[in-house]
Design goal:
The protein has 4 helices and 2 strands; from the N terminus they run H-E-E-H-H-H. By secondary structure, the chain is mostly helical.
Length: about 90
Amino acid sequence: MDKYDNHTDETIKVETKSDIEETVLETTEDKPVTSIEDIVNEVTNRPRPKIKRQISAYLDEEVAKAFNMYGNKNGKGAKTILINTLLKKALKVE
């Protein structure tokens, strides 16, 4: 037994390229897809995300700590959403 024979008796299904293509062509968001053109249209017709711009600001130490704790607790993007929501309300921007 060499170092590559260290496996269990479980069967591993390897998908081929054609299996993946069939799966992609079968359905996209419960809508039948019949061609590559349909797939391209599905991807390119999605709404564009809003443009974001990075800024910097100085915060009081206790505010910065609470802000970082909020981000750690609520996950990726939470601080951006919090700041955007607060500033939109304060500045009356939609």
